[in-house]
């Protein structure tokens, strides 16, 4: 799924982390930390719009992505 994504936005509570996957080249461990929950499953909700992937829920991040 990440092969078709340029920007990853990961949210936990009010914390929003935005990563440019083409420019920043995060490690696999960093990506797992941003994508996976404590049980080892992909965190939810997940939405993909264009080449942006949003993981987790933060209302402001959704409003910005979906406008």
Uncertain residue segments: none
- Oligomeric nature of the chains: single chain
Question: What is the succession of H and E elements?
Answer: EEHHEEH
Distance between the termini: 23 Å
Task: Explain how this protein is built.
There is one protein chain. The chain is built from 3 helices and 4 strands. The chain is globular. The protein has a 4-stranded mixed beta sheet with strand order 2-1-4-3. The N and C termini lie far apart (23 Å). The model has no long low-confidence stretch (mean pLDDT 93). It has a domain at 1-11 and 21-46. It is α+β, with helices and mostly antiparallel strands and 67 residues long.
How are the elements arranged and paired?
Layout: E1 7-12, E2 15-20, H1 21-24, H2 28-35, E3 46-49, E4 52-55, H3 59-66
Parallel strand pairs: 1-4
Antiparallel strand pairs: 1-2, 3-4
Provide tags for this entry:
single chain, 67 residues, alpha+beta, four-stranded mixed beta sheet, 3 helices
């Amino acid at each position: 799924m990440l092969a078709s994504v340029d920007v990853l936005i990961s949210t936990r509570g009010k914390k929003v982390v935005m990563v440019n996957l083409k420019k920043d080249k995060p490690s696999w461990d960093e990506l797992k930390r941003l994508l996976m929950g404590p049980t080892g499953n992909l965190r939810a909700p997940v939405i993909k719009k264009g080449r942006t992937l949003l993981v987790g829920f933060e209302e402001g991040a959704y409003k910005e992505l979906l406008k």
